[in-house]
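To start, an entry.
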Amino acid sequence: MKRTDYITWDEYFMGVAALSGMRSKDPNTQVGACIVSDDNKILSMGYNGFPKGCSDDEFPWDRSSDDALGIKYLYVTHAELNAILNYRGGSLEGAKLYVTLFPCNECAKAIIQAGIKTVVYGSDKYADESATKASKLMFKASGVKCIEHKSTGREIKISI
């Protein structure tokens, strides 16, 4: 008799996004993303971090600073954009994006332009921020469907 306690596709892909986020060296927020085809194949993954060649030992991780160039927000590439840029297979038209944090307005633009049609997100902790509100307006206008991932509370232990 086959197993019945296997994880769902949504649990699997959100789990991959969460695991990808664990690669982030950001001391405050670790975000992961996973792009999936309509036939449930993983196309790309990403996490928030500095661009290639920009040392995470030399660039700042601070959220605020007296130095105008001393904050991480000027340098960090978000997980969603990294996943889009990491893809080497051609078009992402019609794909689904799993991401652990609702996308900002800049990532929303890239998601829309890449042709991604569905965003499944974990947390929406910045829902009241202008950037998130702008994302939602753009997603609605462009027909990108946004679905909140409903956690099952299932815990999975992985030994590596």
User: Anything to note?
Assistant: The beta strands are 32-36, 42-47, 96-101, 118-123, 145-148. DSSP finds four helices and five strands in the chain. The helical segments are 9-21, 79-86, 105-114, 130-142. The mean pLDDT is 96.
